[in-house]
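Sequence only, no structure available. Ideas?
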Amino acid sequence: MNKKEFHRANLPHYQQPGQAYFITWNLQNAIPAKALKEYGEKLSLIKVSVDFAEKTKQSPEQINALKNDYRFLRKMMLKALDDILDVGNHIDVNLSKTENTSIIVNSLRFWEGKKLKNFAICVMPNHVHWVLELNSSDENGEVVWLDDILKSVKQFSSTQINKSENRLGKLWQKESWDTTIRDNRHLYKAIEYTRNNPVKAGLVKDWRDWPGTLVFE
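Reply:
I predicted one. Tokens follow.
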């Protein structure tokens, strides 16, 4: 396995060129570090069990059961963390401020057509949702990795927002949550979730009224 295909901070991440993803990341202090660590440890334990089951050639039924457990826990974890983000009141920087939203949207659209295709973006007050599909390679024939794209957009947006806010220090929490899009139905649900997040959080009644939401044809 190429080192770019797997990496982890608090959570395990898997990436593949040409793959579609639903990604969420947030401000540095928007989620308690303890909660993030606890969820990460639980996921890692199940992942170890999955790897051991595959390595020891256990039955397909056992392996699939473990994988289903992993997917279920990850889904519940993402929902819990997103609920924390939606009710967050204490933030150092308001990402939904016009200037900050513009910086983030521009950074996410920078690689459009060159390295990726955008499906949906939603900039919330303390976090960002992004649905995209990576190209297999860029115009120079170089492989496109999700980790590199995220590093690029987070560094650029962090620098620009810090300048705009006249602040120093880290803006984003190091961790991001990336979910692999399995099929068209999953893609549709990810787009729906992304565009309706401001409605779910009680910020607007119609997603079209939230300036930080973009859905691409």
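Residues 161 and 167 are 8 Å apart (CA to CA).
Hope that gets you unstuck.
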